[in-house]
Design a protein that fits this description.
Spore Coat Polysaccharide Biosynthesis Protein SpsA, Chain A, single chain, two-stranded antiparallel sheet, globular, alpha/beta
Length: about 230
């Protein structure tokens, strides 16, 4: 069995959300970080986890980890100024493994099935990310003027977790740092090395907490799911 590490990117400041660190926002009583950690701790495929947390709230993040009594190694590290720097710090802390999954703590609704789908594709091709098709018409604008309408069938909305061969992702981050390339996500950095990145079906409910409206939707979904489970 290949060794698999997971990096939970939890250092985001949550400025647009207005509730402090996104990873430490409570949804129906539990933080988004705790929810994401539970997902990865429950997966036998994942051997170890690195949480890249907000430097000013590392103690709180460590308490969240301890409260879950993890049965596999979980390390908490300070994140960097950007998500990219945080993932690089996570890769260094993870140490050598065969594959790595990178997931945003701000996506607390990802499922085990999604993680396994991404991991299987990453093992097969070296690099994979989940995505969903946009439901609305997609336009390119400049300022407040329409420039062109884009073909929806050729556009996707990228999600996490994203999965890669450890060697490949480490190289992509090294090359990006050397070239001064700042990417939206790890898939972009890996694609910049010339490696093909596979797309797998994402999940519509795998929403990223960015605005207060997202918070309301995610909390409602969690409440509905957890009420049904009891």
């Amino acid at each position: 069995m290949p060794t698999v590490g997971a990096i939970v990117a939890a250092a985001g400041s949550g400025s647009r959300l207005g509730r402090g660190s996104k990873a430490l926002v409570r949804l129906n009583g539990r933080t988004t970080l705790a929810r994401v950690l539970e997902l990865f701790l429950a997966l036998d495929e994942v051997d170890r986890i690195v949480v890249v947390g907000p430097p000013s709230r590392l103690e709180t993040a460590a308490h969240e980890v301890e409260a879950l009594h993890p049965r596999k190694p979980v390390v908490v590290k300070a994140g960097g100024e950007s998500r990219q720097e945080s993932v690089r710090a996570g890769l260094a802390a993870l140490g050598d493994c065969d594959y790595v999954l990178v997931h945003d703590a701000a996506r607390p609704l990802a499922t085990a099935a999604l993680v396994r789908r991404v991991l299987a594709a990453a093992i097969e091709s070296g690099a994979a990310f989940p995505a969903i098709s946009p439901r609305d018409a997609v336009k390119r604008v400049e300022g407040n003027r329409l420039v062109e309408s884009l073909d929806r069938s050729r556009v996707v909305l990228a999600q996490t977790p994203q999965g890669f061969s450890y060697e490949l992702l480490s190289r992509a981050h090294r090359e990006a740092a050397d070239a001064g390339l700042v990417g939206d996500d790890d898939a972009q950095l890996v694609a910049a090395t010339g490696h093909v990145v596979t797309v797998v079906p994402g999940e519509p409910a795998n929403i990223k907490l960015t605005t207060p409206e997202d918070l309301e939707v995610v909390e409602a979904l969690i409440r509905e799911h957890e009420t049904a489970a009891h």
